[in-house]
């Protein structure tokens, strides 16, 4: 019998596990893969280190006064683990139709000025809109991370910061797009703001809560974007190191098949080899759909299809290329939109990263590691038998069409490609046990962000951490979810966590 079992070593699960173990709760993590990190991991091929998913990272600033909650820095400090990062001067370099090209600089004035130069008639509106995001950021930056289900935490925060909590409550009522439309009317500029939301939320600005934008689009100018040396997998590897340092146990290659529930309460898990392990509390890092259709055997708890919007999955390409095509000063992250009418359709927006421009150790000398991906759905690939020649040929043909579209960004990329790895939504679903490989559940337009599931579930002692829970998708968001989940459980088990 252990105190806590965590199902899945994604960033949400690992964060919860590491904080609980550090506080003295015996914790075991079961991960089906042989590596940690889930959508935030690295893999190696042909001398390259590639990011499996995430590569834009918040929360790594050294200065605690800067950066919304600065969660990664605080957690790694608590665990006593050093993670070296490289500051990225640009969050994303956007390339849009009509030669509209703008890097989202760390330097806020430089970014806003480049927008004002393109839209001089919207100068005042641009400032007012981005100042609104700044005001959300300032509130979030001053409140400690904790569980919104923990009445003691809510009481402490409410007593210490009553005006900020009230102001934040009001701001949860608005979407980023509604606020933008208050100040801005230029259609092209509003499309850009939609794309800013889409870049991480895969929804337009009207569907994206203002509070999320206050982190993603403001913190990039404060805490900034920092890339871990060695690639994305450095983050979960460091969490595992911290977890094990305090005595935690992680079992790779161990898939959980069921949460064992007795008298309405989770009491442990059954692994796919039949082994049963008991615990006082169980945390699922799987998606809400996978938890309540596969892991929990109660049809009454299935999630109705219309409860959330199911975000699409991804078609991903990793390339090793001759380095001569990457010009000096090339930024790490890019987004390419060829046609505004298609930017939010499947495959309409290309996400592109070149991590080896920041960390050359990720590619052999003279080469670069690139990552391209677009939204995609499993139904687009279900006519092919997995690993068949037709499947491989279709993947290659689609990958080549995307690489051809990236010529606009990196002329010569097609000819310079020396190694290519591709993954369909089916691959994403299979590797991570994610229903249809989805990016996760999204709120419906107009729904308040507080309607996202929190860490408690309808089953006593079964908790959830990860991108199905508040505040949502993204590594910093699931880290918050892991912190709030650990805080709630620790208080329930009688030893509250200190604020980070
Ligand atoms: C292509 C792509 C690009 C992205 N880019 C960014 C970015 O630049 N910046 C950013 O912040 N975010 C980005 N994200 C989002 C971010 O990576 C995710 O939101 C986040 O990593 C999800 O973490 P998680 O802990 O919720 O779940 P996951 O990463 O899905 O981890 C869950 C883990 O649980 C394991 N698991 C599931 N079921 C079981 C079971 N039954 N038994 C045992 N183990 C199980 C899985 O194998 C997996 O390791 C990106 C995502 C993708 C896919």
Automatic annotation (TrEMBL):
Name of protein: Carotenoid isomerase, putative
GO molecular function: isomerase activity; oxidoreductase activity
Alphabetical list of PANTHER family matching this protein: PROLYCOPENE ISOMERASE, CHLOROPLASTIC (PTHR46313:SF3), PTHR46313
Keyword Transferase belongs to the record: no
GO biological process, one term: carotenoid metabolic process
Gene3D superfamilies noted in UniProt: FAD/NAD(P)-binding domain
Domain spans labelled Amine oxidase: 11-489
Keywords: Isomerase
Pfam family, one: Amino_oxidase
Highest taxon listed in the record's lineage: Bacteria
Entries under SUPFAM superfamilies matching the protein: FAD/NAD(P)-binding domain (SSF51905)
